[in-house]
Design a protein that fits this description.
With 254 residues, the protein is of the alpha+beta class. The protein folds into 2 domains: 5-179, Alpha-Beta Complex (tt1808, chain A); 181-240. The protein is 38% helix and 17% strand. The chain is built from 3 helices and 10 strands; from the N terminus they run αβββββαβββββα. It has helices at 22-38, 105-117, 182-247; strands at residues 45-48, 53-54, 68-72, 82-83, 94-98, 122-127, 132-139, 142-145, 160-163, 169-172. The strands form 3 sheets. Strands 1-3-5-6-7-8 form a 6-stranded mixed beta sheet, with helices on both faces. Strands 2-4 form a two-stranded parallel sheet. The chain is rod-shaped.
Length: 254
């Protein structure tokens, strides 16, 4: 039986878990959220994690769910799956896979062949267990391996790749800002909050000191005015006394 394209079902899930363990999940989130942050200001860059990609209409069995993928020229928004024929036939240009102990060589070979066949421009594989990082970039019709990933800059993303001393994946934005995990972002936000509170407290103390200084200045000014008034009163009194003495025939200067 042949099904018409509009009667075919393209499932939103392949029944497989997003990650096999917490470490794999952590790195998938690191990549996906870091790329979301990188392109947050560009409405025509779509970033997704563990989203089924169907490259050919009429063939629901032909699909793959990259751990993270980036499609340039496609609007942000919700999707149950990425059906390429509904996306102006734009294939995701960049995909990432984060390995788990359960991944097999035949499985990863099939993924590589899929990405090569359907137009992926850049394909990156990170192995948290072994600290390995591999990259492939399209040259003509083939994905060719990147010789050295340390310091490699993605042609499409503009991000720089590296590994720390423990084999942890590190990415830097084009401006040199590092990608951050949720924990790092939360810690930085807490530090910023504490600094803001301290700055506010310092400002309040400075305001209080300024107000105290102003009150002191006002008090001193008031005392000065009172002293001037007393001096004026004393002078007026002396003048009246002098006038009375002159009226009695007495020279106040003698």
């Amino acid at each position: 039986m042949v099904f018409a394209p509009d009667t075919l079902v393209y499932p939103d899930t392949d029944g497989q878990p997003m990650a096999d363990n917490t470490e794999q999940f952590r790195w998938i989130v690191y990549l996906k959220e870091g790329l979301e942050w990188l392109f947050a200001g560009d409405p025509d860059v779509f970033v997704a994690g563990d989203l089924l990609w169907y490259p050919v209409e009429g063939n629901p069995q032909l699909c793959q769910a990259p751990d993270t993928m980036v499609a340039f020229g496609r609007p942000k928004g919700k999707r149950g799956s990425y059906r390429q024929w509904l996306e102006a036939n734009v294939a995701p240009q960049v995909v990432f896979e984060v390995l788990s102990p359960g991944n097999t060589v035949p499985e990863m070979t099939r993924k590589f062949q899929f990405y090569q066949r359907f137009g992926v421009e850049e394909y990156y594989i990170y192995d948290p267990e072994g600290g390995g990082l591999d990259g492939f970039v399209r040259e003509g019709g083939w994905l060719s391996g990147v010789e050295a990933m340390a310091g490699w800059v993605s042609p499409r993303l503009g991000v720089r790749f590296g590994l720390d001393e423990r084999g942890g994946l590190r990415l830097w934005r084009p401006d040199g800002t590092p990608f951050e995990s949720y924990g790092e972002i939360a810690a930085r936000a807490e530090q910023e909050r504490e600094r803001a509170e301290q700055a506010e407290q310092r400002a309040e103390h400075e305001q209080q000191r300024a107000e105290a200084a102003e009150r002191q200045a006002q008090s001193e000014s008031s005392r000065a005015e009172q002293a001037e008034q007393r001096a004026q009163q004393a002078e007026a009194q002396a003048q009246r006394l002098a006038e009375r003495l002159r009226a009695l025939g007495i020279d106040p200067q003698s």
